[in-house]
Design the sequence.
């Protein structure tokens, strides 16, 4: 009888040890799952967030003086810098949400989601960039274009816009690059390949002189400028493209102009 009791005690000890080990491994597995879920949050939020960028901590404070300082001869500035409204776009032309904000690629707007369907196509979305251009053209605003790597294939496109701006053809070239054909060209063909300068120049030939564009692209004169733009974007709290400022008010992502227009003076 005593021997059987001792055996039962021994078995209970073994079961207790096994239970403790099981609880330990279960806790470890739970932590790993939680860690994986936390690590995947960015991707999930990027898919769900209608602005096109993952949710991020609040932007650092940007003063109006810091915005005014962007309107200098080193940057791509359009309009009267003394206007009441100073508009900033931080953008990667190869970024799908930047394309959506341009209003020139209705096919892509429809693909991204119903909240981006343009009013002309029966949706509720008013793309902000055309509205900003209207303010610039009417003399009510100045606009600065700042490149940032938000998608990965827009370097040559951004440099082409700088080159086109030398000919006074920024918007013409912009509208070509920010339509469906331009989007496909940048992401599927040209990408960041400097040897594709002729292809890109030919694509933009209806907007600007293609020979001048190719010479400008091949010169590499704006290579350093893109690096400087990235530094500027970072100083403004950039976390994803597109990113906008109306004066000192920040709008992260491809916001509907209905949300942004209240900040216009």
Sequence:
């Amino acid at each position: 009888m005593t021997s059987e009791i001792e055996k039962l005690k021994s078995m209970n000890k073994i079961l207790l040890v096994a239970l403790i080990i099981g609880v330990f491994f279960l806790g470890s597995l739970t932590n790993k799952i939680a860690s994986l879920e936390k690590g995947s949050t960015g991707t999930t939020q990027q898919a769900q967030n209608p602005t096109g960028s993952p949710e991020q901590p609040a932007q650092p404070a940007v003063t109006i003086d810091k915005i005014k300082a962007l309107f200098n001869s080193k940057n791509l500035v359009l309009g009267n810098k003394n206007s009441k409204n100073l508009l900033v776009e931080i953008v990667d032309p190869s970024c799908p949400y930047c394309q959506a904000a341009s209003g020139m690629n209705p096919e892509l707007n429809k693909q991204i989601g119903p909240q981006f369907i343009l009013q002309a196509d029966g949706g509720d979305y008013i793309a902000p960039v055309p509205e900003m251009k209207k303010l610039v053209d009417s003399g009510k605003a100045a606009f600065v274009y700042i490149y940032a790597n938000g998608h990965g294939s827009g370097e040559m496109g951004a440099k082409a816009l700088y080159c086109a701006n030398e000919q006074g053809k920024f918007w013409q070239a912009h509208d070509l690059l920010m339509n469906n054909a331009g989007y496909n060209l940048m992401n599927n063909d040209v990408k960041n390949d400097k040897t594709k300068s002729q292809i890109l120049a030919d694509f933009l030939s209806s907007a600007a002189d293609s020979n001048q564009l190719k010479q400008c692209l091949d010169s590499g004169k704006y290579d350093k400028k893109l690096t400087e733009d990235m530094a500027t974007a970072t100083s403004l709290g950039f976390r994803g493209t597109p990113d906008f400022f109306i004066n000192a008010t920040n709008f992260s992502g491809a916001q509907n102009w209905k949300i942004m227009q209240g900040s216009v003076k």
